[in-house]
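Thread: quick sanity check before group meeting

JM: Hey all, I'm pulling together slides for Thursday and realized we never actually wrote out the predicted structure for the chain we discussed last week. Dropping the sequence here so it's in one place. If anyone has concerns about the input, flag it before I start.
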Amino acid sequence: MIFKRKSVLIFSGLLATGLAGCDNDHHHNSNTGNVKQTELETRNIKLLTINGQQFKDLNKNGKLDKYEDWRLDSETRAKDLTSQMTVEEKAGAMMHGTITLDDAGRVDFTTTDNEISNIYVNTFITRMAGNPAHISADNNKLQETAENTRLGIPVTISTDPRNHFENDPEATSVAAGSFSQWPETLGFAAINDAALVKTFGDIARQEYRAVGIHMALSPQADLATEPRWGRINGTFGEDNQIAKSLTQAYIEGFQNGANGLNTDSVITVVKHFAGGGPQRAGLDPHNFYGKEQDYPGDNLEYHLVPFEGAFAANGASVMPYYGQPIGLWYNGELIEEVGFGFNKQILTDMLRGRFGFKGVILSDWGILETCVNKCATGITDEDIAAGVSVWAAGIGMSWGVEDLTRQQRVVKAVEAGIDQFGGTTDSSDLIAAINEKQLPDEVIDAAVTRIMVQKFDLGLFEKPFVDETKAAQIVGNSEFQAKADEAQRRSQVLLKNDGDMLPLAVSGKKVYLHNVNATVAARYGMEVVATPEEAELAILRVDTPHENDPHFPFGSVNFGQLGFEDTDTLVKETAHDGIYTGTEDYTLIKKVEALNIPVVLSVYIDRPAILTNVKDRVDVLMANFGASDEAVLDVITGKSKAQGTLPFELPSSWQEVLDQKPDVAHDTANPLYEIGAGIKL
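JM (edit): ok, ran it. Output follows.
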């Protein structure tokens, strides 16, 4: 067997504990047989030796319980464990907390140890970034705390996406840091190569497990049918068949196959059921003013298709969205106008019933809380400048059930089908609801069992620790990054190439750069100059701007002036798409154009941008979805070819955006570029 201390594997003989033969009667009719000893890792747990095999005495009772018996199936073990849990322990297991970090970005163990030991929470999201040795060491320490709890239930660590080369600091993900850096999921959609997506998932899986992360709060199966929505960069675009195929491949990569979870898997949480794309006016439901989800095209079924890919891959978990569907009919019934996390028709009738989903349903963050203070009154531009965060100012997304108490929301969500609540460790209202018999014991036990089954499937009860030295060798290694770099190059889209300018011979040329690293450019032989007036060529990189944009989560409610010509309504005032008139980037583009030198423009597109006012001002127009300077310059100079095509259409005007329906794909009347556009060299 394998015994582990301080993340170092130590091989030893079978340890006699004086407990041989304890509580072995329940195996007489079990299919345990003479199976090979499994590897065990422990820092504090005593071992039981029974018939020459060893088991962890997780509950410290000196005998072998079913849930401690690695020879039994996960369902049997999970039911036994659930039967031994108190109401408080069950309620804690149904919370999905957030690991508190200290000022150095490391785990605040004073807070987290209390949540594990005294509130009985055993699932947490980590936002810890940086050194993989630190991440793995801190996660190991959390597992050591978990070993010391009454039942020794290991901790499941989740994360938002952390493997994408990120241009957008406001995106809902974790900076890649040491992890391999790939294009955003939109870039994978641009390539439309399921095998590549599966490879990505497999590599990210290895990196996650190396540092002790077990759950991916992804993929995002939502569709980009509403161009104003601020979370499009996490999707696979607006074509539901492409999204279905790539969602399936993503899950197969992360979960190490299509047959459900195993000991090498990372749990995937496909989101946001039943499709988070069709937001009214594109306003995101993290914000109180964006809570309504709209289906004027009666197109719900189109948005369900990507989830079919998730179910085909046996995706382990599902997260419903915040959105409050308005005027939505399904199976001849009007869907209750409450957030999807409270909606029994969606979660029980559709997800569990129609699609036969048997895994864990995890709520999105903050659905139990009330939107108060600045969450309700709005964060102004002045607040943002002062560093005010709505997260610390009364955030809550209990849309459609705002008038209910927190305990009533808990009851309604569990009755709807929620197994676990995201973003909270406060189980008090769930405990009260159980004790007051507002929720049946069998419903709670079923939810807890589903959560525990996943821990058993992953092998966490046997091997919760990771090798901290190996973690630093695995995460972001050169082989992984080489594949990621190639994906960055392939995912770019060439939209315009006047006079067949690309590929460009840049060696020896005087080049003006904007948002491109001069040291990197010099490696291509360019002579970098300080001003456009000195240059023979300009290479410019810009982002689609969205500063203080209310279409983004927690955007400014004061809206602010973003430089649009048509500001007769707030919606038009907050229009985000395009290189705006009045912005510094647009001013620079016009300045360089006036010098009559060739201009190459690469735009990072996180959602459908209106590029009408820049298209004719540049000689080469490229789109990227997260790419390094090297990847962009490799395409410009012909070292690599851009193979991507647009995963959504680009509107030609703001009026086109206003005229389209949020739930209908590629319905722009006169797009500047159609979905699938892209020049192949």
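AS: nice. The radius of gyration is 26 Å. Confidence is low (pLDDT under 50) at residues 1-30, 168-176, 554-578.
JM: adding both to the slides.
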